[in-house]
Amino acid sequence: QTDIPSVRDVVREFPVGAAITGAETVTQHGELLAKHFGSVTPGNALKWDATEPSEGNFSYAQADPLMSFAKAHGLAVRGHTLVWHNQTPAWVFTGADGQPMTATAEDKALLLERLETHIRNVAAHYGTDIGVWDVVNEVIDENQTDGLRRSSWYTVAGLDYIRTAFRVAREVAPHAKLFINDYNTNVPAKRDKLYALVAQLLSEGVPIDGVGHQMHINVQWPTVTETKAMLDKFASLNIEQQITEMDVSIYTGNGESFPAPPADRLLQQAYVYRDMFALFRQYPGEITSVTLWGLADDNTWLDTFPVTRKDAPLLFDTRLQAKPAYWGVVDPT
Ligand code: XIL
């Protein structure tokens, strides 16, 4: 559809982006990306298992084609992600003795050294081409009193892995905005634990520039009011906020499965996109970008997680045609 407005021309408060995987730049998805979006996030290509599959062997083969595409089309790039507990090879957490690392001083030193080497190489490789990094991803577990996820990172290095990651990223990429990214940040218990952590780290002088809200939501959850409470809470920290992985599942529970997206769900979804974008646009200068976790419904991570069923969470359908959700963003009347 060449006749429809570009999302980029309609939403001017912040760049709107999309995540892409693999070969999407060379298919029609690339045209869709270049027409509608101002930013792109490599969905998997910058994760540790892609960039340093074995120790000291850095590989940019997955991400570089996306980077060239972004450059050719003037798209900003969100770097996702330097430190995560998933999609990280086992060697990272294996000690010098070949055993899984534990909370010893020796293992901790080795892990932080690997972390530093990784960030130095990856962030330096891209230099100023990546203006925003998700430095750490999903570090919060609201069921822990201290709010920190018991990942291998935490178990071996405690909070120091987060401090080290931000300090090294700032040193190697001083131009880049450094983000802490997480999901369910609208849930008060989780939101407040994340807030407390960021406030503490900022008071220590750890260089955090922004909070990323993934926003993997569905057609009935969360409400705009809850989402507003989330944005207002973090606004008091005077750092940036970005919506980093938005998609709106048509399913409201794990038991549901539809052979094709029902019309009423697609309409509900359009209202969610409309209302959420209207909310985001009320924070110009504070919300500095909004990224959708995919381009079109033919390629969405929700088809494999949490269960195998066809979802339809994005603005364009499996044939890359604009959905009601697209019109919710572009023509909110
Ligand atoms: C997902 C990718 O989209 C999938 O292709 C991959 O198999 C698993 O990871 N939160 C994140 C993203 O921060 O990195 C995840 O991306 C989705 C959830």
Walk me through this protein's architecture:
The chain has helices at 7-10, 28-36, 48-51, 63-72, 105-126, 152-157, 160-172, 188-204, 224-235, 263-280, 324-330; strands at residues 16-20, 39-42, 76-83, 132-137, 177-182, 210-213, 216-218, 240-249, 287-292. Helix 5 links the parallel strand 3 (76-83) and strand 4 (132-137). Helix 5 runs parallel beside helix 7 and helix 10 runs parallel beside helix 11. The model has no long low-confidence stretch (mean pLDDT 96). It has 333 residues and is α/β, with parallel strands linked by helices. 37% of the residues lie in helices and 16% in strands. It is globular and about 60 Å long. Residues 21, 43-44, 137, 214, 245, 301 line the site of (3S,4R)-3-hydroxy-2-oxopiperidin-4-yl beta-D-xylopyranoside.
Q: In percent terms, what proportion of residues is strand?
A: 15-25%
Distance between the termini: 21 Å
H/E series: HEHEHHEHEHHEHEEHEHEH
Helix content: 25-40%
Shape: globular
Main sheet specs: 8 strands, parallel, barrel
- Secondary structure category: alpha/beta
How many H/I helical runs?
11
Low-confidence runs (pLDDT<50, min 5 residues)?
A: none
Query: Radius of gyration, Cα only, in angstroms?
Result: 20 Å
